[in-house]
Amino acid sequence: GAMSRGKGLSLKDNLCDLNEVPVRELAALPKATVLDLSCNNLISLPSDFCSLMHLVKLDLSKNRLQQLPLDFGRLVNLQHLDLLNNRLVTLPVSFAQLKVKLPWSCDPTAMLLQPRLCCAFLQNLKWLDLKDNPLDPVLAKVAGDCLDEKQCKQAAVKVLQHMKAIQSEQDRQRQRKLQAEREMEKKREAEQRAKEALEKELRKREKAEEKERRRREYDAQKAAKQEMEKKTKKEAVHTRKPASSSRPPQPPLHKPSWSRSVLRVLLFVLFCILCTLAACKLTELQHQPLCVSVNTLYEDVVAALQNHKTLQNMLQHNSHQ
């Protein structure tokens, strides 16, 4: 059942002995701005309950609610909230959003120029009752007793300020955490870059050391090879020396000259002449015309040599005298 209450619609009848809130049915009544769910057996509210953003007055007193949905602050049009006699210990941080910020500050000048536009955004929680809940001691002290209308209005203002402070502190902590995570990430990136640079330097150094080691091995092998060649040459020299000492010394060889060649030619000619002379003297060829000429020439030469010898003897005799 529904009955008219001022500008909105109030839902009270037939909402007793509930264990769950019929959110779908309530969402179909956007003009029902006043909702009374008191004196039920509600332990919790469904998450989609916060979609009922048209609610202005909400009574959840005398239930067994242990907590409110985390996004309870979506009910930004809520002005009157009764949570009397439940099992609440804390309120969600989003509770601070029940006070909507103005688009600009309502200073006296703005209030004089456009008071309706300025005050149109003052849709925030104005009345709150948290009595008979096992509240956190700090929250209980902030909420106060709510024994009359004035105290309940003060409770709404103070609780909203308290939740706003908690939200701001959580935002600062979140920002500090994000900043710390960013710094940690930067530090990790810097450490990773330093590690990669160190690994690169180590690889470069190992490569240079490997190159130097190979060069030294090559130089050592080259030196060993040269030393082996020198040793082989020395052994070959020592092996040849005993053989050469056992042989008789040989006269040094002189290069042939043109005089030796001429001498050989003259000896050959003389040998031919002697052979011819012997043939002409001792064989039957002595009567041949060639041999006759040869014999005659031979006799003339012998006579000339004898005369030359006689003359030489005479000259030697005269020189002795």
UniProtKB/TrEMBL annotation:
Q: Indicate, by first and last residue, each region the UniProt record lists as having compositional bias (Basic and acidic residues).
A: 169-238
Question: Is Repeat included in the keywords of this UniProt record?
Answer: yes
The entry's keywords:
Leucine-rich repeat, Repeat
A Pfam family found in this protein is LRR_8
Keyword Ligase part of the UniProt annotation: no
The UniProt entry, under SMART domains, shows: LRR_TYP (SM00369)
Question: What superkingdom heads the lineage?
Answer: Eukaryota
**Where does it sit, as one GO cellular component term?**
endoplasmic reticulum
Q: Which SUPFAM superfamilies match?
A: L domain-like (SSF52058)
Region span, Disordered:
166-257
Put simply, this protein is called Leucine rich repeat containing 59
